């Protein structure tokens, strides 16, 4: 391509999926996102990815989902965390349906995941959003994956 190109696409700024979701969350999860709504979207994504059976939990503002099948593991055995940073279409969810992991990164205060190799912080600061002792990141069958996220925003309808 010509270095002096004046093509209109050269002037279009690109933003990350996380920034796009933060700018217009209502386009992705509705007008008033809640922790329960984000949890429901993640559960729906995991069902569509055939990662069930699932176990769901909540401890204060921390929400967690354990899936018996590690849906982030590729066939090669490599763990891919891209779903927490990119919009990834999931056609089985319907037209314009994207996987939920990136929505957690964009909207939750903190996101962590655990597998057989340990705990990985995806977003948020561990010192600011410490994991409560009652947040269950265990892998009951010594396999699978758990994702937990902290979400606390005042409900705009409460006041």
Key features of this structure:
4 helices, single chain, 159 residues, alpha+beta, 19% strand, Heat Shock Protein 90, five-stranded antiparallel β-sheet
- What proportion of the residues form beta strands (DSSP E)? 15-25%
Helical content stands at 10-25%
What value does the average pLDDT take? 89
CATH topology: Heat Shock Protein 90
The protein's oligomeric status is single chain
- How many domains? The number is 1
Indicate the radius of gyration in whole angstroms. Answer: 17 Å
Whole-Å distance between the termini? 55 Å
Outline, from the CA principal axes?
Answer: globular
Number of helices: 4
Structural class: alpha+beta
- The low-confidence runs, each spanning 5 or more residues with pLDDT under 50, are none
Question: Any overview of this molecule?
Answer:
The chain is α+β, with helices and mostly antiparallel strands and 159 residues long. The protein has a single domain (17-150), classed as 2-Layer Sandwich (Heat Shock Protein 90), CATH 3.30.565. The chain contains four helices and five strands; from the N terminus they run αααββαβββ. It has helices at 17-23, 26-29, 35-48, 101-107; strands at 54-59, 62-67, 110-115, 118-123, 145-150. The protein has a five-stranded antiparallel beta sheet with strand order 1-2-5-3-4, covered by helices on one side. β1 (54-59) and β2 (62-67) form a beta hairpin. It is globular, with a radius of gyration of 17 Å. 29% of the residues are buried. The model has no long low-confidence stretch (mean pLDDT 89).
């Amino acid at each position: 391509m010509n270095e002096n190109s004046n093509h209109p696409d050269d002037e279009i700024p690109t933003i990350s999926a996380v920034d796009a979701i933060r700018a217009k969350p209502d386009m992705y999860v509705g007008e008033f996102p809640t922790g329960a709504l984000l949890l429901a979207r993640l559960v729906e994504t995991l069902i569509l990815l055939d990662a069930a059976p699932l176990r769901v939990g909540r401890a204060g503002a921390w929400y967690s989902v354990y899936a018996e099948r590690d849906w982030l593991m590729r066939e090669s055995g490599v763990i891919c965390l891209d779903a927490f940073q990119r919009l990834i279409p999931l056609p089985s969810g319907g037209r314009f349906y994207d996987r939920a992991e990136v929505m957690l990164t964009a909207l939750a205060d903190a996101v962590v995941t655990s597998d057989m190799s340990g705990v990985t912080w995806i977003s948020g600061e561990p010192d600011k959003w410490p994991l409560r002792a009652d947040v269950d990141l265990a892998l009951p069958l010594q396999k699978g994956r758990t994702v937990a996220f902290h979400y606390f925003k005042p409900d705009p309808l409460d006041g």
